Amino acid sequence: MAATKVSLKLLIDAKAHKVLFAEAGKDFVDFLFNLLSLPVGTVIRLLTNETMVGSIGNLYKSIENLNEDYMQPNQNKDLLLKPNPPTSVSNVPLLLPDDRVSSAATKFYTCQYNSLDYCYHRCVTNKAGTNCPSCCCSMSTELPFVGPVNKNATSTGEGGYVRGLVTYMVTDDLSVTPMSMISGISMLNKCNVMEFDALQEKVVEIGMDEGLKLLKGSLKSKAVLTYVFLGKEEAKEADGAS
Ligand SMILES: [Zn+2]
After folding, report:
1. Rounded Cα–Cα distance for residues 159 and 145 (Å)
2. For residues 242 and 234, is the Cβ–Cβ distance under 8 A?
3. Which of 10, 44, 94, 240 could form a disulfide with 60 if both were Cys (CB 3.0 to 4.6 A apart)?
4. Residue 131 C-alpha to ligand 1 middle, in angstroms?
């Protein structure tokens, strides 16, 4: 699948070197909301090369290093290290790498009689050559796999989590609300913007690099957009008090 790009309009205070807020469409909000559905194991795997906060990365490494012989015979380390997302919502922008073996890569087979319209044997296997319980023939006719499709996606053509045709305001600390003139002005007030000529509008593109940075930033920073798009680490913890 081609790399997804999502664009985002930022309002930047150039003097304070800070992103005040972003004007976002449905696609960016869907990406942010989808972060909550990621299993912890997936988050650690995605961030493991970078500095992982806390000790949970060590837990991950312990499982990685543990010999399979210590695991219960019916358990697989990959279930913990590469968990499947609990829900699969269609049309969420793919801004995070996926190194799992996708279900699309699993092949399913049936017996040759299933391809005849007067005969239907209700069995599939993921191991080609298994005998069909109905006719004892070898099940080696490959069946196309169809992934789950969100029902809403077919009725509205949208998918994802939130409605389109709405502009959302995403603040530096990732609060998401529908955008309005009033919410924009009150945000400027809240950020103590005095000099309006210091305000700049900037459109940025978000690909997988930025997607990963957003995930990382969301776990450790209260100034995520500034961190990702202006390359500035959060100055002080004391900032959170204001
Ligand atoms: Zn059969």
Report:
1. 20
2. no
3. 44
4. 8
